[in-house]
Amino acid sequence: MTDKGEDSGHDRATRGASIAEAAGRAKGRGPAPVHLWNPPYCGEMDLEILPDGRWIHEGSPIGRPEMVRLFASVLKREEDRFFLVTPVEKLGIRVIDAPFLAVDADIGADEIRFTTNIGDTVVAGPDNPIRVEQRDGAPRPYVHVRSGLDALIDRKTFYRLAEAARPDELGRLTLRSQGASFVLEG
């Protein structure tokens, strides 16, 4: 506060920040530093992320990719829950499988670079492992994107990964990226 009882610009920006405003300020700068924020829980938002990468708000798909990217920039995971956060509020959302979808991969000799449905890129490696889980008898492949957030690898990309994989000493299909090995069997 200033001497005249007025808010400073910084105080207004921090105290009055909504999810959309905070995401808007982060536009073009990548994800916000949500790992540093621990605001109070403010309730649930009617927002659901489907396994096919669609974000559904109040029953309708969010049609603007820019809005999805903005919300994704303030997405945070705490244990098995997902939240949209700003420095001053935290709203719970539902994620059916993984919050992102890996829709493509550039597969090099020792680097696999994924592109997600929101335009982020991530290189598989020790900090961003590839894993395969078995669900209902089918493989579900994932790559870690950031801070506990994963991307489900779409079918066409997984098939390309399987084609590029080589057998390890135990005969399991294995990929290498950034010096790490990833078995494509769950």
From TrEMBL:
<dbReference type="InterPro" id="IPR023361">
    <property type="entry name" value="DUF1285_beta_roll_sf"/>
</dbReference>
<dbReference type="InterPro" id="IPR048341">
    <property type="entry name" value="DUF1285_N"/>
</dbReference>
<dbReference type="Pfam" id="PF21028">
    <property type="entry name" value="DUF1285_C"/>
</dbReference>
<feature type="domain" description="DUF1285">
    <location>
        <begin position="99"/>
        <end position="184"/>
    </location>
</feature>
<protein>
    <recommendedName>
        <fullName>Proteophosphoglycan</fullName>
    </recommendedName>
</protein>
<feature type="domain" description="DUF1285">
    <location>
        <begin position="32"/>
        <end position="98"/>
    </location>
</feature>
<dbReference type="Pfam" id="PF06938">
    <property type="entry name" value="DUF1285_N"/>
</dbReference>
<dbReference type="InterPro" id="IPR010707">
    <property type="entry name" value="DUF1285"/>
</dbReference>
<dbReference type="InterPro" id="IPR048342">
    <property type="entry name" value="DUF1285_C"/>
</dbReference>
